[in-house]
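QA checklist item 7 of 12: single-chain prediction sanity check.
[x] sequence parsed
[x] length recorded as 779
[x] structure emitted
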Amino acid sequence: MSDPPSSQRRLAAVMFTDLVGFSALTRRDEALALRLLEEHRRLLRSVFTAHGGREVKTLGDGFMLEFPNALGAVRAGLAIQETIRQRNAEQSATEVIRLRIGIHLGDVEYRDGDLLGDGVNIAARIEPLAGAGEICLSEDVARQVRHHLEFSLTNLGPQQLKNIDEAVTVFRIGANGGVASDAPDTREEALSIAVLPFTNISADPADEYFSDGMSEELINSLSRVPGLRVAARTSAFSFKNSGEDIATISARLKVQRLLEGSVRKAGRRLRITAQLIDAADGYPVWSGRYDRELDDVFAIQEEIAGAITHALRMTLPAVRGQSDTRNLRAFDLYLLGRDHMYRRTPEDLAIAIDRFRQAVQLDPDYGLAWTGITTAFALATEYSEMPISEALHQTVESRRKAMQLAPELPETHAADGVLRWFQGKLPDAAKSLHRAVALNPNFSLAHMWLGNVLVSRGLLTEGLEEFRVVRELDPLNTANLRNIALVLLRTNNLDEATEVVSQVLEHDPHDSRAYWILAEGHVLYGRLEEACRWGQQALDADAEASSRVRCYGARAIACTGVCLFDAADQAIASARALVPRSTMIAEIAAETHFLAGAHERMLETTREWLAESAIPEQGPLSQRQREAVLWTGLASMLNGIHDQAIGHLERAFEPAHQYSDLAYLEVGLLSLLAHVYASSGDDAMGTITLDRALAAWDWVSDHGADDPLLTLQRAALYLQTGDHRLALEWLGRAVAQGWRSPGWLEQDPRWASAKSDPPVAALLQQMHADIHRAAASGC
């Protein structure tokens, strides 16, 4: 785009870009910040010119640009974010570039190459409304582009922008091109569809896995269609045998079309019927019936998917080639394996692995089945006692074969990503999962796993964005809603977290994990009476035996929060009677003993936990193993066993090249480790480790973490650096956030010299009074 005359008014699309977190990075590592700044400028300039943009000027860590029209500006913005996303997939957490963009179409004045006027000011004010990886648009831009993009726009409603007289309606494109907000949405909807589980009308009820498999295969096929939003399996299958009407289902799934049908197997004959229904009026817009030999099932799937996309005036991409099979028995075994894998029990996962292995014996080129083996072993490390080392050993061949046969399959990269996640290789996991969602933006499970990995790396804002993408694709996925709530708790949003968890309980009043989150969150933020109520409601929910372990855990958390340690011990004992080896209960027991000052019992508990965790002598630790090592190190320190404390705590941090979802613990425990070094006479290592703790605090606070526990750790860090004034100030902030756990100050050796200071003593006295009041309410 050529430069305009020296002074002129005209209509233009104005774009502002900004590097998220650049100032904090500059304070932490100026050399790295400047290197990333230059790299980001080089990458963006190549995109500007390709889309007809003119660089007006640089503004610190951002750009001001103009484009001749709105569509060109938005397409440039999308290309910029995609360029950054692809670049980030190859980088470690510390090297990630996070960018936000604002665009407005309006009247501007050109003056000697610069741009002036309200059109510029509005674009500048819109840009901060975007999150990392997002683009915010004014209504004027959205009106111009909404019919030319495959992505939907989220309407954020009228926004009162600084120094702009009238409110401006703002729209947002999320970090993956999808919807990224829970705000009321009045956008023009992208095409959307849900495939309901087909009814099994075969004579044998055991054939239901086959009808379910047909439904899921259609979900997978339609998910590959660009511009079509497909409701995920979890939400769609929640209406199986529900009897709900079309209007209710479509409203809850937020879709415009519903596909329903039936499957009948009789010997070698197969009959499939299907109809596509318009949710607006309940009438079918397409229907079909297929009577074929069972061997034709693959052709039928393609015909149905093709007919549906034709009815929607869209195009079905080509089939996936070697990722599929034409061996009917191998396909049948794969469907059986997948059916068992969804149940997530140790027994079902073992059956799933066996079925997948039988499938690849029949068809060694069946990429999906090889991927199934990897995924099932990865899940077995989470849902059974299988060590991650065993899963890695067992999946060497399956990972190699899947990558060889089906490198274009999103499931291949998702399986690799989740295994690396459980292995603790978070950057590699993120890279694989980013690839999976790039191949299929409708792949909700991969988005959720990616969200978990990003949160595990301490990237709370980015992780929450992935969970919100999942919420659009899979609105009834309660596991994802719990993920959202947990991140909200860590970012000082208790009320919003409570609202989200309440939605989980509306769907399933017996969800023990939901009660756990509510009890823990209300303890964390000092709402002790409510914590007690949720802890008791967990037990009153009468969940099945396997879930009651978490219900007892919720009760124990609530009782610990109000210093009723005997009652907490009783709840822990009840949980252990159901499941003797629960890492979750072991952690609660360790914390209970710590707050009660029972240091010897704490050491005994953590040593048992450590022995059961099968800690390898070398190599990375899984999340559960790290927790066991960290708590054992803390217990060793409190019992004066400094050499073991140092060994355990350093072992826990040894594989961590980036911070994890234990980052708030790492801040505190690195600080405690510095205290151990100092107590043992190694002042040099104490200073080095304290610097590590300060860096960890900067990291998690820069990425959204803001809960009372983190604030308290910052207070302790100031105490260790000798700044008592700031230590007391941050302690006051923790209390203002809701901190009501005097045991942490009374048992924490870092506060030993400060407990008698009048301000600290007054805070402890007030916290004890609050706790006694809550305990008296009947916890």
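[x] summary fact logged: The mean pLDDT is 85.
[ ] second reviewer sign-off
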